Sequence to fold (215 residues):
Amino acid sequence: MTDKRVRTGAGFGRMPGMTKNGRRWNHNIHYHPRILGAVPEGARKALDVGCGEGMLARELRRAVPRVTGIDLDEPSLEQARERSDDIDYVLGDFLTHPFEPEFDVVASVATLHHVDAAAGLARMRDLLRPGGVLAVVGLARSRLPHDLPRDLAGVAAGTLHRVVKGHWQHPSPTVWPPPVTYAQMRELAAELLPGSEYRRHLLLRYSIVWRKPLA
Fold:
């Protein structure tokens, strides 16, 4: 099978750094508040799936005492570890790594389209303790021409954000196009995470938030 991952970011043709206003911005970072707003009160342990260079993990650490990040991309993890914080960064595959189902929060941004979406959602679900929260921001494939007006609006909005804020290119490999459509992701969320909240967002992303039942 052809590997569709493409290396971007530091050391691969683009310089690392901040955006024009001194803060990082891109489409994924824009929706970090969707993840952070879902962190349950009193959460003690969080897992960032596909953590890359650790930006979301560091944001989670401000609210959660113990944070673990896992990623398959070693160069990105090397960047994360350069921060010398107390986050536990794991080089590995979250689908097979022997985590215990003990996390109060499992978070993921722009990772599900790198794996089988159903297997990924099920694995994240199973790593939660009862009462824990799964929060996902992801990419999906549009159905044309049905989704064209929404996509054009998203491209216009994204362009405006770039002009105002600049754009930070993350260092992790990318996959394009996403193998699963927005409609298929909505169906998977309803099937695997009953009662979850699925939202499609303007800047070409979707989110899923779900709390695991206590019993």
